[in-house]
């Protein structure tokens, strides 16, 4: 996987060099570019998460400057890929694709996305200050790039962080969060758990589906020295590191609220916000929910740190989305959608986007003294993006089918219905059958894109 990341970085550098645009610009390039497109309607899918609520707050500015109408539907994450795939295969009305990092291969290989290089050929609708080099390379590579081609721009960007209630930790005798998962299990968790008072040390979002497969199951592989696949795309779940991580997760269930295996992100965040748990490992995007007095009781007790390290080191989760232009859109809609995507991910509105509750993929905004001082999540998040983390979820087109298998058996492992060994063997057998059918073992498809 590390070899894959290096390949993408060099591919991105080449792509960025080919997308340079003139520096001169009008006083308002966006308004000028949109004049021929006034009245055009574009459409996409948003999630019910802070980053999307943030762009919705800023949307009137875009529509006023451009005369372009942005239609959106808010869809639960677990239903988003299915809804988009159905729309694209039936040549529906979506002009914009919301692309999770694990969907990029499927969407690109099916021809549903327009490459940025094609869009940027039209200088009239390309921001003179587009500056692809201004994105964190890790994010542009993971969320928007496939096979060396940039398709989408990072929009809703996540790093896994440890959010915790510093007051609860202090009451239990701790003046800082656990630095390692071993420290969490042996020292912190027992003192922070009292089931008789409905008080628990930790909540891990584990709802069956992508939340279970990505946010729960995969989170405890890499830090413990494991991984889903080896370099030949065979199952690596029976390795010592993978088994140790999955057993650790299973053992932690006694320190979590009953029913946590049905918790999605909202339930995990709410458990911390309302004082039921002392710690969660969640995406950076939920910071604003936890500091909002309307949704959280934490107040000054909220603190943020990197995710704890495992035996293999500190390897936090990476997640996020890009926005891309859908190939099924009309030429006018493609231009209008391209304008919206550039604006929504631009350096121009990055600070306003962050202050409205979003997490920008632009490096410059996190150097702003006001942003660094105001938002506790910035320092640990930026550190993880600059260091780089393993692509702990494969991005190939076969992932959605594999994710269903991982979600089913990952839930059984976490609940103790099967042992990590038995569950891992089932996942490995079924996963390799999917990859065999898809042509990953007979040379029909490249193992590393």
Automatic annotation (TrEMBL):
Subcellular locations according to the entry: Periplasm
Keywords: Periplasm, Signal, Transport
SUPFAM superfamilies cross-referenced by the UniProt entry: Periplasmic binding protein-like II
Stretches assigned to coiled coil: none
Chief place where the protein resides: periplasm
Alphabetized InterPro entries for the sequence: Bact_solute-bd_prot1, SBP
Gene3D superfamilies (UniProt xref): Periplasmic binding protein-like II
Pfam families assigned: SBP_bac_1
Protein family per UniProt: Belongs to the bacterial solute-binding protein 1 family.
Name of the protein described by the UniProt record: Sugar ABC transporter substrate-binding protein
